[in-house]
Amino acid sequence: MRLKGKVAIVTGAGQGIGRMDALALAREGAKVVVLDVTDKIYDVEKEIAASGGEALALKCDVSYEKSVKTAVKKTLDRYRRIDILINNAGVLGAKKSCVEIEEEMWRKTISVNLGGLFFCCKAVLPAMIKQKKGKIINMASIVGWTAGGYNVVDYAASKGGVIGVTRALAVEVGQYGIAVNAIAPGTIETPMTVGKESDMEKMAKDAEAHAAEDKKRREVVDLKNQADQLVYSTEKTLKEHGEKVAAEVRGNIESALNGLKEAAKGDDGEAIKRAMENLSQVSQELGKILYEEAAKKQAAAGGAKPGADNAAPSQEPAEGEVRRKGGDDVVDAEFEAK
Ligand SMILES: NC(=O)c1ccc[n+]([C@@H]2O[C@H](COP(=O)([O-])OP(=O)(O)OC[C@H]3O[C@@H](n4cnc5c(N)ncnc54)[C@H](O)[C@@H]3O)[C@@H](O)[C@H]2O)c1
Which residues of the chain have pLDDT under 70? Predict the structure, then answer.
């Protein structure tokens, strides 16, 4: 009985989380004032009384300040103090896309979830300040905290507002011994969320699709970079050593280069791969010549054959090697004899 003698108000206590809060507070010995717009509060009141607790059910629409003031006055008339306020009353909102939310629905979501919370805080604070003690717990949502789903612009705005009010009020009233906190849960199965599983499934599927698209995009970017390097090194080699092959071979390399440049302008990864393969094919003859030249040169200098397992690492690129743009010194794979 950790809350014996305490007085707690729970808004939206007719069902769902609010009802469970009210029952839990009563179990711990608090006198619980259950507020809601529905008659279900009378059942909650009876449930608490039946289990030996004390409750007071009051019809109250938190989005109207007058209604809240009346409920708080009745609470103080009965119990003379308020120790705990749980701002739980809430609506899920329009569940429509931003362009479809009607003005009336927008106003309702904001006025219940955010306005209601503000009116309740405002109404209980004078008593809590006088007591120099109090606890206010606000029901936010993960949706007010992160990008939490589809068709929740109004709900997200209201719950983001709840987090903002919580922070600002905590700073404002901490000096009076009043703690203000928020809870931001993910989905909890209550009458508010039942039947909304399809939304969660849709989110999961969309996230998967986005990840796959993103992966594909990154692969294309990688291929474009590879194509860019291949074009650079091939053009350089062709300029320096092109005369070592027949004009027809040079022509084939040039036309394959143009094909690769053209493919790399687009986003078709397969086309880029095909164009790179084509360039490799038509460049093989030139690559073989350069490789053999390099091998001869190294043999004359007493070194091993380029590419052999026991080849000594060479500090300087041998003739025929290609220096990649921005990269390490390498014998370009496309010019290595197979
Ligand atoms: N269920 C979840 O997954 C979930 C997740 C995060 C946050 N929340 C928040 O928790 C709180 C409770 O949610 P729940 O799932 O129990 O919802 P719920 O719909 O089951 O219960 C909400 C209660 O608030 C009452 N209410 C609505 N408008 C009111 C008003 N103007 N004045 C007084 N009472 C009013 C309703 O009548 C209802 O009894 C809400 O603020 C909700 O946004 C819920």
Answer: 147-148, 195-201, 203-204, 303-338
Last residue of a domain, one of 132, 167, 194: 194
CA–CA gap between residue 291 and residue 279 (Å, rounded): 17
The contacts of residue 145 (CB under 8 Å, 6+ apart) are: 159, 160, 163, 184
The 3-state DSSP composition of the chain as helix, strand, coil percent (nearest 5) reads 60, 10, 30
User: Cα of 91 to ligand 1 centre, how many Å?
Assistant: 5
* Residue-wise pLDDT tens digits, 28-55: 999 999 999 999 999 999 999 999 999 9
How far away, in angstroms, is 259 Cα from ligand 1 center? 62
Please give the number of the atom of ligand 1 that sits closest to the Cα of 185. 6
One domain for residues 224 and 272: yes
1 in any annotated domain: no
272 is a domain residue: yes
- 158 Cβ below 6 A of ligand 1: no
Structural domain boundaries enclosing 144? 7-194
Predicted TM-score of the model (pTM): 0.66
Count of structural domains within the chain: 2
- State whether 81 and 155 are in the same domain: yes
Query: What separation in Å is there between the alpha carbon of 204 and the centre of ligand 1?
Result: 24
| Annotation marks residue 232 as catalytic | no
